[in-house]
Amino acid sequence: MDSVSIDNTGSPLRGIAAKLREKAPLMTETYVAYAATQQLMKECTRHADYTIPQALEKNEELPRDETGAHLGVSESWWFKELGLDVTFINWAQVTFIHMYLLHVRFRMLPTTHAPVWIQHLTNHAFYAAEDRLVVWHKINANSLRQKYLKDIFSQWRAVLLSYDEGIVKGDAVLAAAIWRNLFAGREDVDFEKLAQIVGYMRRELRRLDMASDDEVVDGRWSFSGNPEQEQTVVKTQSRSMAGDASRP
C-alpha cells in the first residue's frame, strides 16, 4: 500500500496537496490550449475560406464538379491563383498546410505541454471540418460525415509525414509533397506557384521559430500574406539557375 504524508492534524492532506500542485500546471495548460487553439484554428481555416450560396436556399441543388464534389465560391489566393476547384477537400489541404506550420512550432514547447497543444489543434480542425460539412454541404447524416472526416484524417497523417520529410530533405522534396497533397499530382501544375508555396512555408516557419512561446500560444498568431509575396524571390532564383545551367 502506498504511504501517504499527513499534516500536523493527522489528516492525509500533505501528499494529496503535493500531487495536486504537480498536476495543476498541466491541467491549467489544457484549458489555455483549448481556447487558444480554437482561435488559431480560425486563422488556419481562413486562408481557403469559401461559401456555397445555394446551401442557403431551401431545396436548392448544390453545384458539383465532374467527380461529384460540391463546388463553392471563394476570393482566396489559394483558389484563384492556383486554379484549384473550390471544394471541401482543397479547403482541407490548404488548412493542413497552415496547421502543419503550427504543429511544427508546438513541438518546440516543453515536452509536458506540446502534446496537449497538438491534440487540441487537431481536434478543432475536425470540429471545423464537421461544421463546414453541415452548414455548406448539407451533409446531415452522421455516418456520411464520419466517412468524410475519416478520409481527411488519413490525409492529415500523410501530410505530416510528407511535409516533415520535405522540411528535412530539402525544397525539392517539400515541393513534391505539396504537389501530391494539394495538387493531387496534376500534370498541369504551375511550378512557379509551387515554388512560391515552398518559399511561403519556409518563411512562416522562420517567423514561428523566431517568435517566443508566448507570442505563439496566446491565440492571436497570424500568418503573413500569402505565397504570392515569394514571387520576386522565385523569379530571381529561377533566372539565376537558368544562367548557371547555360554555363559550360
UniProtKB/TrEMBL annotation:
Q: Which residue ranges are recorded for the region named Disordered? A: 221-248
User: Its Enzyme Commission number?
Assistant: 2.3.1.179
Start and end of every Ubiquinol-cytochrome c chaperone domain? Answer: 81-223
What is the name of this protein?
Serine carboxypeptidase 3
Does the entry feature the keyword Transmembrane, yes or no?
no
One of the protein's GO biological processes: mitochondrial respiratory chain complex III assembly
List the keywords (alphabetical): Acyltransferase, Carboxypeptidase, Hydrolase, Protease, Transferase
Please list the GO terms describing molecular function.
Answer: 3-oxoacyl-[acyl-carrier-protein] synthase activity; carboxypeptidase activity
Polar residues bias: start-end ranges? 223-240
Keyword Cytoplasm on entry: no
Q: Which gene encodes it?
A: cbp3
Q: Which family is annotated?
A: Belongs to the CBP3 family.
The record's top EC class is: transferase
Entry's Gene Ontology cellular component terms: mitochondrion
The record's section on Pfam families has: Ubiq_cyt_C_chap
